[in-house]
CRISPR-associated protein Cas4
Amino acid sequence: MISEQDVGGVHIKYLYHCPRQLWLFARGFRPEATSATVQLGEAVHDTSYRRAHPVDLGSARLDDLDGNLWVHETKSSSRPSPADEAQAIHYCYRLRLVGVDTQGAILRYPKTRRTQRMPYEPDWDERARTDIANVRTTVAQPLSPPRPARTRCRGCSYFDYCWSQ
Ligand code: SF4
């Protein structure tokens, strides 16, 4: 069973994208290491954010925390998603747990030049705790969660594994 402290940003992202992906990831299955999608994400990150100051919180590692205590995340997708927002809220929660009074998060999408500012809201801590609990419940399931509609799997690095049977 994964502990509360071990739940990181990737777990939160996968919880929202696909519980099956979360379940597989938590069991050490990592096809994303060779995925073209992930390589694109890393390239976008490297070329967009050279002067960032990453913060390592153990299981959660965020791109940057600026001097005004805003969390910055750079994404390779085109537009904000519930997964991106939940991940940002999770990082703010983790920082607040260790006494860093974050002001919120700024999500950047270099591909479409979009920026989304998310000022901290009082219900974020509760949302983050609920997400952590849902991650732990999903991971504890004895069988992998079912696949969603195939259209949701487009671009997923687990595609070959899930759909080659
Ligand atoms: S390929 Fe589809 S079912 Fe498999 S982990 Fe990805 S989104 Fe989930």
Q: What stands out?
A: The two ends are 28 Å apart (CA to CA). Residues 18, 20-21, 147-148, 152-153, 156, 158-159, 162 surround iron/sulfur cluster (CB under 6 Å). The chain has a mean pLDDT of 87.
